[in-house]
């Protein structure tokens, strides 16, 4: 049983490792009811990230530069295109993500 779990974890890590990774800038974050809305720019294009305030992995980031990793389809907490944010300096190492979000084009 442990071997199966380990194999699954390795496969999942491999898929995330091949995901789309980019540097983004958080412009602003706000909380509206139970939803956290984060306005970002990726390569000059505006996007919004959203998460449910009380959900696990929902963090309100400060303005600044981060690394965003787009998760493969059907991976993540939300029923949408999921992304994870990392501190820009910590993304090169094995650090935990700051949060997981649903990404929406503006």
In words, what does this structure look like?
Strand 2 and strand 3 (45-52) form a beta hairpin. This protein is globular. The protein has one helix at residues 2-17, and strands at 20-32, 35-42, 45-52, 64-70, 82-87, 99-105. The chain has 106 residues and is of the alpha+beta class. It has one domain (20-105). The protein has a 6-stranded antiparallel β-barrel with strand order 1-2-3-6-5-4.
Give me some keywords for this one.
alpha+beta, 6-stranded antiparallel β-barrel, 6 strands
Please sum up the structure shown.
This protein has 106 residues and is an alpha+beta fold. Helix content is 15%, strand content 46%. Strands 1-2-3-6-5-4 form a six-stranded antiparallel β-barrel.
Strand content: over 45%
Write out the strand line-up for the largest beta sheet, numbering strands in chain order: 1-2-3-6-5-4
- Straight-line distance between termini: 45 Å
Rg measurement, Å: 14 Å
Compile the SSE list and pairings:
Blueprint: H1 2-17, E1 20-32, E2 35-42, E3 45-52, E4 64-70, E5 82-87, E6 99-105
Antiparallel strand pairs: 1-2, 1-4, 2-3, 3-6, 4-5, 5-6
């Amino acid at each position: 049983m442990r071997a199966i779990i380990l194999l699954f974890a390795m496969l999942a890590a491999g898929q995330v490792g091949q995901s789309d990774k980019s540097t983004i800038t958080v412009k602003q974050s706000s909380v509206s009811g139970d939803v956290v809305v984060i306005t970002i720019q990726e390569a000059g294009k505006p996007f919004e990230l959203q998460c449910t305030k009380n959900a696990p992995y929902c963090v309100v980031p400060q303005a600044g530069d981060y690394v965003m990793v787009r998760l493969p389809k059907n991976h993540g907490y939300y029923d949408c295109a999921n992304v994870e944010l990392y501190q820009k300096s910590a993304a090169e190492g094995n650090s935990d993500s700051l949060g997981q979000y649903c990404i929406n084009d503006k």
